[in-house]
């Protein structure tokens, strides 16, 4: 997990837990009676929680007995007094438990709903994961503030609450398995667009990636034996079937696999490491599962993914046996680029080119993925951002098809 990003449920140690948020940061300003604690990234934290940033900020004030001020236009949120960052993070965990997590399934995919019963009003958490509606403790002082400043309903049928459309946030993917298409022609930031186009200019079919021969023997007997073992193990497996369970579950076999890969990484010998990975997946009984591909994409690749794709080409070529597996890999790329390594955003065209030339991903699957924003693996904003970055490669595919037809 990248520095600065933590699981929304910080008691969950699974690196591949879907729901994530930025680590709350603080900044002390002023002196004497005018000293205050500024929360520079409260907007981003609240967006990940699908709550208005005023809610957790006001919660801090209630718990600390301190005044709070909000400047929503400039995204400036302040708690009077000097407060330790770790203390505020602990209080944020309490806020999440009381006002975000479903009381039944502990999933953060909830929205706050105000229900009027006569002269009284209650606040409940409506969970989009399990369907349960559980109440919050109405004795807490924050409930008075929420009733006076009710959460804004997201338009266009989105099952989120918070400050406008920005409530979608980091790591918030929906619990359902359906893909949702969004017709949104909004342009990305000019600087990002220029950077992406610059990367796209380097795309061509004669790139070194196309010439890389994964199976080439280095003449070392040990390498021959390792490759033979890898091919034998994979050819004997029927890599098909649907997944059971969720990669969000704590201590799930997928989490165990991802953790094992992260702890046993051997960048100097990717071929023998591929054998070990497959055997570990077999041991866990998930060598046929598409979610194994999702987790491996996140666990294996780093900022050097373009150079790493050919090294693990044989492993993925054998494990990816259906369109569902390919979509899982693309979902892993979304999480890797959108959450773990944002600096890779401009390299998305190169990443897709590497996977395409390695015969891991098919053109039709890539095109369909690139034109349909989905909330299955990340929040919609992240999904849209990654697909926007892929446009140069999609354009390259289209132009290549046109040349072929001519």
Automatic annotation (TrEMBL):
Q: Which residues form the W2 domain?
A: 247-406
Give UniProt keywords alphabetically: GTP-binding, Initiation factor, Nucleotide-binding, Protein biosynthesis
Got a GO cellular component term for this one? cytosol
Q: Which Gene Ontology terms cover its molecular function?
A: eukaryotic initiation factor eIF2 binding; GDP-dissociation inhibitor activity; GTP binding; translation initiation factor activity
The keyword Membrane is annotated on this UniProt entry: no
Gene3D superfamilies annotated for this entry? 1.25.40.180, 2.20.25.350, 3.30.30.170
Task: Output the superkingdom of the source species.
Answer: Eukaryota
Question: Please, one GO biological process term?
Answer: formation of cytoplasmic translation initiation complex
Keyword field contains Nucleotide-binding: yes
Instruction: Note down the stretches annotated as region Disordered.
Output: 156-182
Transmembrane residue ranges = none
Q: Which family does it belong to?
A: Belongs to the eIF-2-beta/eIF-5 family.
Which PANTHER family does the entry link to? EUKARYOTIC TRANSLATION INITIATION FACTOR, EUKARYOTIC TRANSLATION INITIATION FACTOR 5
Per its record, how is this protein called by name? W2 domain-containing protein
Q: Which organism is it from?
A: Cylindrobasidium torrendii FP15055 ss-10
Origin organism lineage: Eukaryota, Fungi, Dikarya, Basidiomycota, Agaricomycotina
